[in-house]
Amino acid sequence: MTRRWANGGTPAARREETPVVESGPEQTRRRIRDAAAHVLSVKGYAGFRVTAVAAIAEVQAPAIYYYWASRDELIEEVMWVGTAATRDHTAAALDALPSDTSAMDRLIAAVEAHLRHVLEMSDYSRAAIRNADQVPPSIRKRQIREENLYGELWRRLLYDLNRSGDMRVELDPYHAQMLILGALNWCSEWWDPRRSSVDTLVADAQSFVRGSIIAFPQPDRSRRRRAQA
Amino acid sequence: MTRRWANGGTPAARREETPVVESGPEQTRRRIRDAAAHVLSVKGYAGFRVTAVAAIAEVQAPAIYYYWASRDELIEEVMWVGTAATRDHTAAALDALPSDTSAMDRLIAAVEAHLRHVLEMSDYSRAAIRNADQVPPSIRKRQIREENLYGELWRRLLYDLNRSGDMRVELDPYHAQMLILGALNWCSEWWDPRRSSVDTLVADAQSFVRGSIIAFPQPDRSRRRRAQA
Q1: Mutation test of the interface with chain A: which of B204, B206, B214, choosing the one with the most A Cβ atoms within 10 A?
Q2: How far apart are CA A99 and CA B150, in angstroms?
Q3: pLDDT per residue rounded down to tens, chain B (229 residues)
Q4: Which residues of A touch B212 (CB under 8 A)?
Q5: CA–CA separation, A75 vs A138, rounded Å?
Q6: Is B151 in contact with B132 (CB distance < 8 Å)?
Q7: Structure pTM?
């Protein structure tokens, strides 16, 4: 289909959709939206053609208007849904932790949840990043709301970490938050599943982030711990 | 002129051009290219209009073709020149270091040089990132060559650090390299000069990167050292 999909760039699509019937309206809707995310990330807002989406999703172009009233409505959904899904995924991972989990371990769990989801939804991440300034403001409304809500989740993680005393005092928590998210988000631009596994990348990212902010740095033991588990 | 320029996003333009006559052909050429970088970052390749560039640069549209033979030639230059300039700047910073500088200190010096330049040329960085897949392959040729050359510089820094024993052995040097560059490059998306100074951000980024990869983590002393200097 495309280079990115062919090399396994969106394992989410495979994993989530393979076990169920692929011809239902929800599957078709998702297939069209995935195709739209890819086209938007590659062609940009001005170059986005519904016919290109239809060709990739293997549907007739008019079928798209069964699900979305307009080209802009489809684009609007692509712009915010990646952030919304990543936020849901990360929030659920944090909710599943024992209540006595330390602030550092919560942050490190969020690193894994965020990174896995960004890699699974890489076309959505790229589409949103690359078109943030290209789409009309009306299309950005829900995306901006999602970004703010998700930013709030991360601000809270860094705030709690800062209060716990496990974070280096001289680091501005907002700078730390954005440096972490930059390191993680950028992975969708360069990570090559033929070169290294998601698990290896996640373990390295966790080690990297932990060291980057920890107050009284100690040798990283996360791998050893994982190996024992 | 634009929000980004008005809030000091491209101090390079001010610093480099203010002392010399601003009306010469080189200054006009630079002004047009800066405007083209801005338009390309905001509108994307398909939405790029030479008339919009002319309006921002305050020249007549035909004047642009005095400097570039075509719209695509102008875009081609915007795509690679940001990386090339950042590479020159970082290489020069490294060359200026004493020959006995440790691998870690060389890396930390590169973090500063890279970050300062990315922030100064943020329109170029954004234009290149957002249009990497949008422009025809011919336009990407020199950009890809520059990216590879610059990637080579960073690979060398991480390779030397890895050999020095100052880097955590379990970290894949390539993963570390790309996580660092992601954290730094992303700064052009969120850094707000009204909220924090470049110097503060650079100091935080250096502390962040040092901790992220150091083998036997110790409390960061870079600030104290700087304060004593």
Answers
A1: B204
A2: 45
A3: 333 333 333 434 434 444 444 578 899 999 999 999 999 998 989 889 999 999 999 999 999 999 999 999 999 999 999 889 999 999 999 999 999 999 999 999 999 999 999 998 889 988 988 888 889 999 999 999 999 999 999 999 999 999 999 999 999 999 999 999 999 999 988 999 999 999 999 999 999 999 999 996 454 445 444 444 4
A4: 208-209, 211-212
A5: 11
A6: no
A7: 0.82
